[in-house]
Amino acid sequence: MLARTVEVTKRFGDTLALDRVSFDIPEGGVVGLLGPNGAGKSTLLSLLVGLRRPTSGTVELLGGDPRDPANRRRIGVTPQETSLPSTLRVRECVEFVAAHHPDPVPTDELLDRFGLADLAKRQTGGLSGGQRRRLAVALAFVGRPTLVFLDEPTTGLDVEARRSLWDVVRDYATRNTVVLTSHYLEEIEALADRVVVLGQGRILADDTVAAIRGIVGIHRVSLRADDLPPLPGVVSVERTDGRTSLLTTDADELVRELVRAGTTFDGLQVQPTTLEEAFLTLTGK
Ligand SMILES: Nc1ncnc2c1ncn2[C@@H]1O[C@H](COP(=O)(O)OP(=O)(O)OP(=O)(O)O)[C@@H](O)[C@H]1O
């Protein structure tokens, strides 16, 4: 086990950012943390990497305290927002970080791996947002970390840059371990086998990507009808202002069944649900 939290709660004043979160990071592969804005993903990472202390509960990193520098030296982190000294050149940034590690990746190799070789001499202040983001992610890998934490690593990257970063992460995770956060199931699907879904500070699901995909495939079908026949895949029903709203795992089949049953209805709408909505419905909160 590389890291774990046990019954971890984190409060910021009145805000309950994490609510009794227990979660393990075993060795090898990619763990995806998925959740909407404010779910607690960044807070969870900040506790795991020793930047913050939990209000209660315990956090372990590499068998010890995440605040111990000896443990932190073996991890790599890219926070959600990074500021790079604007007058330093790209190569100088990498060399600066490399100087803090006993066995860093050679600078040219790292720049090449992250598609930064042509930018080596540029000052970071002149880089585009996406180029800066790529450098910030690259810096997490300089020290050959056992465990890498990436908070929304591909924010601001174009499709090509995103795909090539995915390749690097995937390759790294064949020998080491990566934890990454994202709002997008697609990103996690491209990289991780396991997804931990956070919502309102709680773990809503911890499962394979395939299982989570099934849950997120839920749609909201809403319509006006007096009487509804039994319908397939329905996980919840709400009635407001004369409209009925059904959450279903198979919207197509539900609509076919409505027609087949000769139901009288109007105002039909089919919408994808948000992640949060899908999970909150399923967990009955
Ligand atoms: N330093 C802080 N002071 C006060 N509240 C905070 C602080 N950091 C986080 N929070 C609150 O804790 C909750 C969880 O925030 P967190 O940043 O962990 O969410 P997130 O899942 O990373 O969201 P996002 O996807 O927007 O980055 C939010 O309600 C946030 O407003």
UniProtKB/TrEMBL annotation:
* Domain ABC transporter, first and last residues per copy: 3-225
User: Which superkingdom does the taxonomy of this entry point to?
Assistant: Bacteria
| Localization annotation | Cell membrane
Keyword Nuclease set for record: no
According to the UniProt entry, its GO molecular function terms are: ATP binding; ATP hydrolysis activity
Q: Which UniProt keywords apply?
A: Antibiotic resistance, ATP-binding, Nucleotide-binding, Transport
User: What is the membrane topology noted in the UniProt record heading this document?
Assistant: Peripheral membrane protein
Cited Pfam families = ABC_tran (PF00005)
Listed under GO biological process in this entry are: response to antibiotic
> Principal localization?
membrane
Q: Which GO terms describe its cellular component?
A: plasma membrane
Q: Which InterPro entries match?
A: AAA+_ATPase, ABC_transporter-like_ATP-bd, ABC_transporter-like_CS, ABC_transporter_ATP-binding, P-loop_NTPase
- Fetch the PANTHER family from UniProt: ABC TRANSPORTER ATP-BINDING PROTEIN (PTHR42711)
Write down what this protein is called.
Answer: ABC transporter ATP-binding protein
Protein source organism: Dactylosporangium sucinum
